[in-house]
Amino acid sequence: MNNHQKKYQLKKQERINKNLRNFFEICTKVDKFKVNRNASLEHESKINEIATKLLYEGGSVVVSGKLKNGKIPDLVVIDSENPVIYEIEHSESKESIENKEVNYPFRIVHVKIE
Q1: How do residues 24-42 score in pLDDT, each as one tens digit?
Q2: DSSP annotation of 69
Q3: What pLDDT, on a 0 to 100 scale, did the predictor assign at position 27?
Q4: For a tag site, which of 3, 31, 63, 74 has the least CB within 10 Å?
Q5: How far is residue 23 CA from its own chain's centroid?
Q6: Count of CB atoms within 10 A of residue 4's CB?
């Protein structure tokens, strides 16, 4: 690994650490998957598909990590200055979706599954 790559990795890790400290509960796992058996198979499969793609592209993700405000987004890309939430929408009400827009501290990408 050359000097430029080392600096990039260090900056990336610093962003991850900062975002974890500022927005997530203690002991949040990065780049780990867990399955919510109360969600549908389609919902969990889509989360894993997106997370795997992001990991292969070099991103770092938090899957179902609890935010300090108590909310639990499906997936957060955590390694950028402006983290992005991916919310998988399967059978959620319009009200539930609107509440997330208010309660989540990051931009949300809505992914609909039929």
Answers
A1: 888 788 888 878 888 889 9
A2: T
A3: 77
A4: 3
A5: 11
A6: 8
